[in-house]
Design brief:
about 350 residues; alpha+beta; Dna Ligase, domain 1; 3 domains; 11 helices; about 30% helix; binds adenosine-5'-triphosphate; binds magnesium ion; PurT/PurK_preATP-grasp; EC 6.3.4.18; purine biosynthesis; ATP-grasp_carboxylate-amine
């Protein structure tokens, strides 16, 4: 049996490890924490810093392929891994997807539409960017943001100082505020041979900056815009020589799909695929990185609805299980801190 190395030990790593086990692979987690959601299902766990080149090299030497569930890893760490083994997706995908400025430039160079954006390295540059883009805008740190963290909304020019301080004066981009009706994601798997398969695009609803629900099939504007968004997503994947699952988030605007951000990995808006698709995003990620043929990404039911269990919402698990139509997933996290993703529940439309 072969071993898959996974950087990061959270719930995405846990669900990758479950899919890997089903296909007969062992997994080995590398993460800075002592333990995490993936520890329950992965036979090996190495605690180490993402900056520790020697430890990363030893980790890569001991596995057959390295992948990641967390993109905020220093690209130099991925370069170390790449000299000691096969890393899928590769270092270039990681370098671009972990930096909002690079990802927006990359996608707009490939012909995608993004919100107007400008790099911000100082308060002066923020004020210039507001002059160009307008004050209805969002200031986002270039790196490390997730679940709406590391971003501040502006509404008037006088908001500049407060916003700049609120993100602790880090390298950032200012984005014009996009008026949209709905949000959706394109999730694809690209095999080692370049074959691409798309899952149905879910309509995603966020609450307090955190994904709340994903629903397929999406109707209306999303259904009209999916083809254009897929064409762009395929271009991105091909340009990166991507192997594995790739996610692009879009706003469905009156002018067409507007690219928001990408994730070089399996994605929360694809959790419905565990029950709702013929092959889940986790299984196809494992198949892709292991050089196996991809499974069918089509719907396994007429529709599916996924709801995240955030913080104390997970305490309702018994009530959720009382309805036999619900598929409950808990991530084994001990502390139900506010805003923390504790699990999710999926219902199929039958
Ligand atoms: P994720 O958890 O998806 O990684 P994130 O912290 O990386 O989130 P974004 O996806 O960039 O942040 O933004 C979070 C949400 O804020 C978006 O899903 C969208 O609802 C809203 N948003 C972000 N950028 C814009 C924009 N330019 N115009 C309007 N709304 C936006
Ligand atoms: Mg993000
Ligand atoms: Mg997002």
């Amino acid at each position: 049996g072969s071993t898959i190395g996974i950087l990061g030990g959270g719930q995405l790593g846990r669900m990758i490890a479950v899919a890997a086990a089903q296909l007969g692979y062992r997994t080995h987690i590398y993460a800075p924490e002592e333990s995490g959601p993936a520890a329950d299902v992965s036979p090996r766990w190495t605690r180490g810093a993402y900056e520790d080149a020697a430890a990363l090299a030893a980790f890569a030497d001991g596995v057959d392929v390295v992948t990641y569930e967390f993109e905020n890893i220093d690209p130099s760490a991925v370069d170390v891994l790449s000299t000691h083994g096969l890393v899928r997706p590769g270092a270039e995908a990681l370098r671009i997807a972990q930096d909002r400025l690079l990802e927006k430039r990359f996608v707009s160079d490939l012909g995608g539409t993004t919100a107007p954006f400008a790099p911000v390295e100082s308060l002066d540059e923020l004020e210039e960017a507001i002059d160009d883009i307008g004050s209805r805008a969002i200031l986002k740190t270039r790196r490390m943001g997730y679940d709406g963290k590391g971003q501040v909304r502006l509404s008037e020019p006088g908001d500049a100082v407060g916003a700049w301080n609120a993100i602790a004066r880090q390298s950032a981009i200012l984005e014009g505020f996009v008026t949209f009706e709905e949000e959706f994601s394109v999730i694809l798997a690209r095999g080692a041979d370049g074959e691409v398969r798309f899952w149905d695009s879910a309509a995603n609803v966020h609450e307090d900056g955190i994904l709340a629900t994903s629903t397929v099939p999406a109707g209306g504007r999303i259904a009209e815009q999916v083809e254009e968004a897929r064409t762009l997503a395929r271009k991105v994947a091909d340009a990166l020589g991507y192997v594995g699952v790739l996610t692009l988030e879009f706003f469905a605007s009156a002018e067409g799909p507007v690219f928001n951000e990408m994730a070089p990995r399996v994605h929360n808006s694809g959790h419905w695929t565990i029950e709702g698709a013929v092959t889940s995003q986790f299984e196809n990620h494992v198949r892709a990185i292991c050089g196996l043929p991809l499974g069918d990404a089509g719907l396994a039911a007429p529709g599916a609805h996924m709801r995240n269990l955030i913080g104390a919402q997970a305490n309702e698990w018994q009530a959720i299980l009382a309805d036999p139509a619900n598929h409950l997933h808990l991530y084994g996290k001990h502390e139900a801190r506010a805003g923390r993703k504790m699990g999710h529940v999926t219902r199929l439309v039958l």
